[in-house]
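We modelled the chain as a single entity of 245 amino acids. Its sequence is:
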Amino acid sequence: MVDHAGRILPFAESMRALTNSLLQDFLGGPKLLKLSWVINFQKAGTFFFIGLLMWIYQNAEPVVWIYLALHGSYGLCWILKDNVFPDSGWQVRVTFGGAFMAFALVLGWYWVIPWLLVSGVSVPDYPIPEAPWLAFCITLHTLGIAIMLISDCQKYFSLKAGSNLITTGMFRYIRHPNYLGEMMIYSSYALIVFHWLPWVILAWVWLGIFSVNILLKEKSLSRYPEWTEYESRTGLLLPAIKHRT
């Protein structure tokens, strides 16, 4: 993948540099905050934010309670994850302006998704009866949580043990299972809200941040001798389908 990305990689590197500048150095000043603290505030605050929305709009419909349970519990799972096996990438120090930009560019937009549902801006009209549709969303969310947590846990302890290229467990067939898990989680929210705007928000995050991180991670991992064989038998986000001849 990296070998065929001659034009894409420079763009990804420029995007990474711009993002780092905005999220870490915006407006200058002392870097008193960790980026992880900013993210954790949004993640943990989601449960209470949705609860506040329910109180403001006096909306206690069952679908709203289900959304609260899913999105709210995801935030709490994230806090547990960050305390047990934190991601080193989130431990960088940022300015107060950088913390603001983290909300303005990414984190704050995640709160627009429940607002659409609770406020009544989106009145879901699912293509199938509500019960099986919500059952599918809950299943998608649960599997996404499991994939994200297991892969992040494996990555953390494997790297801590001195492993370089992780090719077993959750990474046996998929090179980026943690991103797959995240995408499944937020797809479940978009499917529950059933409005076009969540997909625009997710497209921005997935293309502007996830894809950049994936490209640059693959470039970094390609330095290992076993990378070529590993890349040839695995998929980026889904298991590779090999055609027999």
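As a brief sanity check on the tokenised model: The first strand starts at residue 33 and ends at 34. The chain has one domain: 2-226.
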